[in-house]
Every structure is written in structure tokens, then in C-alpha cells.
TrEMBL record:
SUPFAM superfamilies: F-box domain (SSF81383), RNI-like (SSF52047)
InterPro entries the UniProt entry points to: F-box-like_dom_sf (IPR036047), F-box_AtFBL13-like (IPR053781), F-box_dom (IPR001810), F-box_SCFL_complex_component (IPR053197), LRR_dom_sf (IPR032675)
CDD domains the record matches: F-box_AtFBL13-like
Residues covered by the F-box domain: 20-56
PANTHER family, alphabetized: F-BOX DOMAIN-CONTAINING PROTEIN, OS11G0201299 PROTEIN
PROSITE patterns in UniProt: FBOX
Protein name (Swiss-Prot/TrEMBL): F-box domain-containing protein
Gene3D superfamilies hit by this protein: 1.20.1280.50, Ribonuclease Inhibitor
Pfam entry (one): F-box
Length: 419
């Protein structure tokens, strides 16, 4: 090696002075993508890296506001930390470049100052975002929800994905979905107060309504009309939608998941009506459905699921008044309405188990009786998977015996799951 080159390498001048900042050489668009993964506070802090980064955050197409960065909680020093958080976000939005559109806006902030949070949301919506996520967490000491989604005319024209949590949504919101969100394809409502009775959209392909409350005094069911809908998830409490939920004009629906937290005020006839709108699905998950809602006895209007390939049942067929044989016959009756079904998954179905009941866990002998009832031949059903949590051998043996006798065609798989 030439002595001059060796001396230069040993001095370290090549590794420091001659090495360029490759990250800073990237175009703004790519750097904005990198910054979109950062919380707002960290994104602004990139301005100290170099002159290249100084004002880059002002034109970010994505903003993520999260009070947890400032450790704002429902505990001590909340006012001091909230003031710091409020000053930062107000400056962030004030110094943002007005000529740059906003692709994504996400906010997680409880309504410690409702007027301030509302102002932030309004300011961001004016940029016509394509993705909008608003999450207003609740603390025990907070007043009941009262923050509403602002309605700013054509500002929702580019909106494709909308996720709302702990907001009050009135009839104006329903009108917005119908006529003001012409590009919306993904809607998620979580723990919202829904003061409307109709969700109607011609563009919506994915809908999630999770533990929302309905305080409308109307006597009609909640109606979902979405001809382009492909995925539907409903988590329903017993104290909401007292007149049920109807799904209409959703022939494009492929996958549905319906979770009944409690069904005392959502009786079997409402559950059956909900099922009738899901006739086109290929995959269906049902949790805590009543047995009577899943039977086609004395009901000419019970749906036939011609497209269904996968069915998952959790905590179903738990009627204490029926024995296992009757429950299996009810299950077979339901499966007859899904002639193309290929896989069935059962979890916590057919029997209730309390781990504290020693007498129910141990049994010296198991009596497997001959079943003289109807045998159901589901020709395309290839697999029945039984998921279980606790080892109650006699109950599992009786269930497997009954399944094999009632449904002799498919294979049966037993899988233990861990909480």
C-alpha cells in the first residue's frame, strides 16, 4: 500500500469527511414516508439533525398525535402535562405548510379540554385527509361523552378510511356517510354513541361496529345498507339496538363476524333476522348465538348459505334444557343450510364447564349411548375442529362420539388452546 494512502486511512479522515449522509440525500417523498412511522413529537425533533431536515416536518402528509408521548393520564400533574401537550400540538398544526394536503391524521387524546381537541380535529379535517382516526379515551373521572365529529362540507371528499372511538354520532353523521363520503371504503366505530338508525353507503367495503351504544328512541331496527360491503364485524351488547340490526342489500358480503356479548335484550328473532342478511358469506363467525336463532324449524325464511366454506361457532348451543344429543341434532339442522361448507370450528360449544366443579371434572366411567337420531351427511364438509381449554375428558369424549355419529363424513380434529 502507498504510504500516503495508509496514513490517510489510519487517520480516519476517509470514514468521516468523505462519507456522505445518504439518508438526507433521499427525496422529500421518501423521507416523509420514513417520518410517517414516527409520533408527532419525534417527527418534529428530526429538525435538529441537519439543515436538510430543519423544516421537513412542516410538509409531512401524515400526522400522529398521541397524548401518551407526554404521559398525560388521569392521575397527578395532569394539568401540567396537558398544557405541555396542548402547546406542542397547537404549534405543530399552526406551523404546518397549508399548501400540502394531509393524507393521514390520527389523534389519541382524551377530552380534558374538549374545545381544544375539537379545534385540532377541525383544523386537520380542513386538509381533506384520506385516512382519519380519532380516538378519545375515557377515564373514570371524565364526564359522559359529548365530543362530536365536525361536519365541514366537502372536506370528506377524499376520505377512504375512517376510524372513530368514543364519539357522539348523530343523524348528520348518517347523512355524511350517505352523501358526503364518496370515496369511503373502510369504516370502524368503537364505543361510540350512535344516535342514528341507518348506515348507508354505496362505496363501503369494510365495516366494524364494536360495542357502540344506541340511544335513539326509535322502534325500528338499525339498518345497514351497503351493496359493496365485503367484510362485516359486529360486537353487540344487550343494552343496545333493542330492536335488532338488519343487513340489507349486501350480496357482495364475503366475511362476517358477529359477537353477542349478552343476548337478553337481543332475542333469538332478532338474531335470526340478522343471520338472514348474511346469506352470501363464504366465512362466518358467530359467538354467543341462541340455539333457537340457528334453527330452521317452522321458518320458511331461514337463509341458505350457498357460498359458505368456513363456519366458526363459539359459545353456541349451550341451552341447559337440552341434552347433548338434541344439541347435535340442532347443529346438524343448521349445517344442512350450508351445503358447500368445508370446515367447521367449535369452541366452548355444547356444554358449559366450571373448573371449580370437581364432580364435573372427574368421572369413573363414560357411557357412550347409541344414537338413534338423524344422521346428517354434509358431503363437502372435510374437517370439524374442536377447540378446548380445560381437560374434561369425559365431556370431550362424549362430544367427539356424538359428532362422529351425527356427522360421519368429515374428519375430526381436537386442538387444545391456551389462554
Amino acid at each position: 500500500m502507498i504510504p500516503e494512502q495508509k496514513a490517510k486511512l489510519c487517520s480516519g479522515s476517509t470514514s468521516r469527511a468523505d462519507t456522505c449522509d445518504r439518508l438526507s440525500d433521499l427525496p422529500d417523498g421518501i423521507l416523509h414516508v420514513v417520518m410517517s412511522f414516527l409520533p408527532a413529537r419525534h417527527a418534529v425533533q428530526t429538525s435538529v439533525l441537519s439543515r436538510r431536515w430543519r423544516n421537513l416536518w412542516c410538509s409531512m402528509p401524515s400526522i400522529s398525535i398521541n397524548e401518551r408521548e407526554f404521559e398525560v393520564r388521569g392521575y397527578c400533574q395532569i394539568q401540567e402535562r396537558w398544557d405541555e401537550f396542548e402547546d406542542f400540538i397547537t404549534n405543530l398544526l399552526s406551523y404546518r405548510c397549508n399548501s400540502v394536503s394531509l393524507d393521514r391524521f390520527q389523534i389519541y387524546a382524551h377530552s380534558h379540554s374538549q374545545q381544544t381537541v375539537d379545534r385540532w380535529i377541525r383544523h386537520s379535517i380542513e386538509y381533506c385527509p384520506t385516512v382519519l382516526k380519532i380516538e378519545i379515551p375515557c377515564y373514570h373521572d371524565d364526564a359522559p361523552l359529548s365530543l362530536k365529529l365536525p361536519y365541514l362540507g366537502s372536506s370528506f371528499c377524499r376520505l377512504k378510511k375512517l376510524s372513530l372511538s368514543h364519539l357522539v354520532l348523530d343523524n348528520h353523521f348518517a347523512e355524511l356517510l350517505c352523501s358526503g363520503c364518496s370515496a369511503l371504503v373502510d369504516l370502524e366505530l368503537v364505543n361510540c354513541f350512535n344516535c342514528f338508525q341507518h348506515i348507508a353507503s354505496t362505496t363501503l367495503t369494510r365495516l366494524v361496529v364494536n360495542t357502540c351504544f344506541n340511544e335513539n328512541d326509535a322502534v325500528d331496527p338499525m339498518v345497514i345498507t351497503a351493496p359493496s360491503l365485503a367484510y362485516l364485524k359486529l360486537v353487540i351488547q344487550d343494552t343496545i339496538y333493542r330492536h335488532g340490526i338488519s343487513v340489507c342489500n349486501v350480496s357482495s358480503l364475503v366475511e362476517a363476524s358477529i359477537y353477542m356479548q349478552y343476548n337478553e335484550d337481543f332475542p333469538a328473532k332478532y338474531q335470526r333476522r340478522l343471520l338472514s342478511g348474511l346469506f352470501s358469506v363464504t366465512s362466518l363467525e358467530l359467538t354467543h348465538f341462541e340455539t333457537m336463532a340457528m334453527l330452521n324449524k317452522n321458518s320458511d325464511g331461514f337463509p341458505i348459505f350457498l357460498n359458505m366454506r368456513y363456519l366458526s361457532l363459539e359459545s353456541c348451543f349451550l341451552d341447559d334444557e337440552c341434552d347433548l344429543d338434541s344439541k347435535l341434532e340442532d347443529l346438524g339442522s343448521f349445517l344442512e343450510n350450508a351445503p358447500c361448507l368445508e370446515k367447521l370450528t367449535l369452541q366452548r360449544c355444547m356444554f358449559c364447564v366450571d373448573p371449580d366443579w370437581e364432580w364435573d371434572v372427574k368421572r369413573k366411567s363414560i357411557n357412550l349411548q347409541r344414537l338413534d337420531g338423524k344422521t346428517f351427511h354434509c358431503l363437502k364438509l372435510q374437517m370439524i375442529e374442536v377447540l378446548y381449554e380445560d381437560d374434561h375428558e369425559h365431556l370431550l369424549v362424549e362430544l367427539l362420539w356424538g359428532l362422529a355419529r351425527r356427522l360421519p363424513d368429515p374428519s375430526i380434529k381436537l386442538t387444545k388452546i391456551f389462554r
